[in-house]
Amino acid sequence: MARMEYAVAPDMAPKLLRGRLLRRKNLWREPAARWADVVTARALRACETEPCPQVRRGRLTRERLRSTVLDIDDCELLIGRLSGAPPRVSDAEVEESREYLKRMCPQPPGQTGHCELHFEPVMQRGIAGVAEDIRGRMTRGAGDAGVYQSFLDALEGLSALIENAAATVETAMNGADATRRNELAVLAASCRRIAHEPPQSFRDAIQLLWFVLLGVMCGDHVGLVVPGHLDRTLGRFYEADRERGALTREEALALIEGLYLLINEFIPDGLAMSVMVGGRDGQGRDATNEVSYLCLEALRRTALIYPTVGICWHEGTPQGLVDLAIDLIGHGNPNPAFFGDETIQTGLKALGVPPAQACHYINSTCVEITPATASNVWVASPYFSTCKILLEEIADEVESGTIADSFTAFRERYFARLDRQIEAAASNENAARRERQRCGRKPLQSVFTRDCIARGKDIDDGGALYNWVECSFVGLANLVDSLHVLRKEVFEAKRLSLAAVKAILDADFKGLEAERQRFLHGHPKYGQDRPEVDAGFGETVAFLREACARRRMEPDGSPFVPGAFCWIMHEMLGRECGATPDGRRAGFPFADGCGPAQGRETCGPTAAILSTTSWDHSPMLGGLAYNMKFNSAFFQSSKGYESLRTLVLTFLRRGGFETQINVVDGDTLKKAREDPEAYRDLVVRIGGYSDYFTRLSREMQDEIILRTEFTEV
Q: Which of 39, 206, 433, 604 qualifies as a cystine partner to 67, CB 3.0-4.6 A?
């Protein structure tokens, strides 16, 4: 079979497009937002007389997608980039539309997205086949006709989006050279086909996957719907194309890179998008395939913040997959991460997920875990500032004069205070769920979420199989270290009264540096492999697990699930919190995830790993991240790569949930802070996601710089 000619060699396209992306990123957002708001207002006005809210929502999704305008340049291999030049609308119409939307279509509370969609039906039967299934259910009277009609309207909009994309590609053929015209003709034919029919090739499948993601995010106004397990979704298409000689490995790699570039164009900086590879299937067999490797390798040339690629590691994971991730990390790419497959599956099964489904999960953006294909799980809802709550307890006891007579009593009072906040938070999330059920609705996302079609319910009305809520406890290492200092200083050695500690903290240690140094260095810390401190972390997590388990979430009594996922909240909540008994000054970022606080891993990475894996991670499906940071000099020989692999596997074998690694030296970070333009594309790992270092706040930059930088193992 003759090979296709390319206008730009597949290995060159990502490099060219990467530079263009960094120059034009975000330029399209305001024109596209103006157009989208006008389209939304027009669509809602057109169906104001329709009595069924679900039908109105389906029509709205359809019209949004019909009106979405895409663009393509001279070397993109996939189409799906929003145009910065949609139809022009007047300032007056934009302002009037936005006022109308505030009145008629307020954004309901609660989280959206953070899930992997159910791609398999559309990959097998195409959009037309999925629509035929829905029409059959309507004919049989199997569910609410209005719900099913909204699903059909949403699918009609998705098909229209793809047809419009085909037309855009065909227009781009005018004036293109012969090679590019041929390339565009293949792309246009692919779009015309997948607008209705199932994909027939790897190219078809990856293009359809992006259209579904884009359609849900634009049509339903949903955030951060992730590609998920690309190796499982695309593997059979890759293998079939390779077997018939229709695809080379390099061409498949370039298409995956094209998907990554589209993601980076569409998703604003500072968020997260996730791909997962490897893991095990329902029979316990390793699920790694060639696409798993390509998903990692695609990070090398794109070298952008999206996506992260998580390796679901288990004992049967091929060493080659681990080595590829370690190689990327050692060369400065922070986007690969390692997830403990056994630990996560244990946690999912404890929440009632059947074993055959517990193997298919996703870090829904950063490190929070949701069941793939079937999730209406809300993550990081809400965040708790554990140390601020500790300061409230100290203040309350001192000011009321009812100081606990023992450390055990003090900690019980603190846990009781935290428990009340957990109860209030769960109540608030349930109120948001009820409001979402009343005035939400996401028909296209529902089509691609099990079991909304089978149940005849929208995802906001309980159609998904899994509807739990994941909350997040920030600053746990600071909390545990602080509790240990209080135990020793106040309740055992009785060196200070609780009132004296409060006065020191209220002064932010000003004029009291000796006390701060004693709090900071005179007591062992989490991350130093000190059982007396590490035990406190495990006891705290056990309390959080039990406290959350007592709460149930609407609409179906789903669990309230704990985690320690931080995103950027360890910096934001730290900025709002006073000084703490661990020696941390007021306003300084908390520790992120499950790792030690900044600079406290003084006994080396092995001791830090022993501390962080001294307790059971499996209940914390809301997410845990253990960040490691190595100086780039560590990787000047193969020994550095081997040592890092050993550390990572030790962490995972001891039950670690997730770990991620920055390889960059502090001098480079300091130079980037002083000359941001010269380091515009320097990517670092934060608290479960990656971001450009130069766009971080000064406080967050300080936090990254101050993380312990290992130079040896």
A: 39
In a domain, 252, yes or no: no
Please state the domain count of the chain. 3
- Contact indicator for 547, 425 with CB cutoff of 8 Å: no
Give the predicted TM-score (pTM) of the model: 0.95
Are residues 177 and 133 located together in one domain of the fold? yes
Give me the mean pLDDT over the 233-256 stretch.
Answer: 97
Domain that holds residue 548: 383-623
- Whether 251 maps to a domain, the answer reads no
Instruction: Answer with the one of 566, 590, 623 that is the final residue of a domain.
Output: 623
Q: What is the DSSP string of 482-540?
A: HHHHHIIIIIIS--S-HHHHHHHHHTTTTT-HHHHHHHHHSS--TTS--HHHHHHHHHH
Q: Could you tell me if 409 and 395 lie in one domain?
A: yes
Cβ-count burial 202-237 (b if 16+ within 10 Å, e if not): bbbbbbbbbbbbbbbbbbbbbebbbbbbbbbbbbeb
Residues 286, 215, single domain; the answer is no
Query: With bands split at pLDDT 50, 70 and 90, how would you rate the model's confidence at 692?
Result: confident
330-339 per-position pLDDT tens digit = 999 999 999 9
Percent of the chain with pLDDT over 70: 98
- φ, ψ for residue 511 (rounded to 5)? 75, 10
Residue 303 and residue 421 in one domain = no
Confidence check: pLDDT of 279 > 70: yes
Tell me if 573 sits within 8 A of 614, measured CB to CB.
Answer: no
d(CA 436, CA 663): 42
* CA torsion, ordered 209, 212, 218, 224, to nearest 10 deg: -60
